[in-house]
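Protocol step 4 of 6: structure prediction from sequence.
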Amino acid sequence: MAEMDESNTGEVDGNTPAIERLERDLAREHDRYLRALADFDNYRRRVERDRASAAQSGKREIILPLLDVLDGFDRALQQIIGAPPAVIEGFEALRRKLLGLLAQHGVTPFSAVGESFDPELHEAIGTVRSDELAANTVAEELQRGYRWGDEVIRPARVRVVV
């Protein structure tokens, strides 16, 4: 039996370069496997982020026209002052319903008049002079601004005191 052990040892010694090569190949393939796993995980995160971004973009495309509809209700309510009370109440109810729907999706109006002009929140359409308001103060709101969560989805269009 001792002879067999010696012959087996000789075979192992003779195969040492082959074993070392196989171990290097195994380590290289394991490294490639780990990189592929990391690449796939990064790909999965990127796809999820892109999907969420596309969903947000789609919502934005729906919300912005709804804000225009809401502006239409505001203008209509200013024009129908002499209309029958039922007509005015109907317009107001529809406006409230639309505002509620937008609020359910995180869209809320913000006020601008009397606030200091902020280019992140306001779009200056014009300027006015005033003895009562300080310079760089919003004097008039021409179109209401809205936030969607923490983001300004539409800035308020305003006139600013100079």
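Step 5 (inspection) to follow. The longest strand covers residues 122-128.
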